[in-house]
User: What shape does this take?
Amino acid sequence: RKEVEQDPGPFNVPEGATVAFNCTYSNSASQSFFWYRQDCRKEPKLLMSVYSSGNEDGRFTAQLNRASQYISLLIRDSKLSDSATYLCAVKRDTPLVFGKGTRLSVIA
Amino acid sequence: DAGVIQSPRHEVTEMGQEVTLRCKPISGHNSLFWYRQTMMRGLELLIYFNNNVPIDDSGMPEDRFSAKMPNASFSTLKIQPSEPRDSAVYFCASSLRDQPQHFGDGTRLSIL
Assistant: This one.
């Protein structure tokens, strides 16, 4: 089993839709969790950290479920500009381990 | 506010040639990471440094790959000799202690 797994997508959604991505991790000792966004032919950029109690940043909500070892990202009222690949990242005492990413296309 | 700076942005070279990728981390960051990204394998960690010291190079594919960090503001990743299967985007990232990593723009490497 890979250390961090994501559905590769693509997710094709209309503008205004709500879309959710899940990411599972295999190491229960993982300590920190993040979502990164990567645009085509660009570098990954930190979107948000994921806290145990869940956290929200505008239209984006991140949640952590330690018991089931997954993190999620919810995007509400999706915009065309949200089209990108979303990578989850998990950290123990070593550097971040990334999932392969989920591709999102928001369609007008 | 300078981010992680990588050079070159693009490199096209023939197999067998030596390739050197360069990275300048964000000033004050004490950890530096080299990643390789391909469609098939995603983003893979090659090696990382803490305070200029290599900590884990288990991700380096083989002896043809080497990395150095002679000081806190500079690192290189070298491939010698290069092979077509080394073609990928190579990212350098840096971070401060346990903070999340910040990535450079990457070097798009094509080995013919």
Notes: Residues 14 and 50 of chain A are 26 Å apart (CA to CA). Chain A has no helices and eleven strands. The mean pLDDT of chain A is 93.
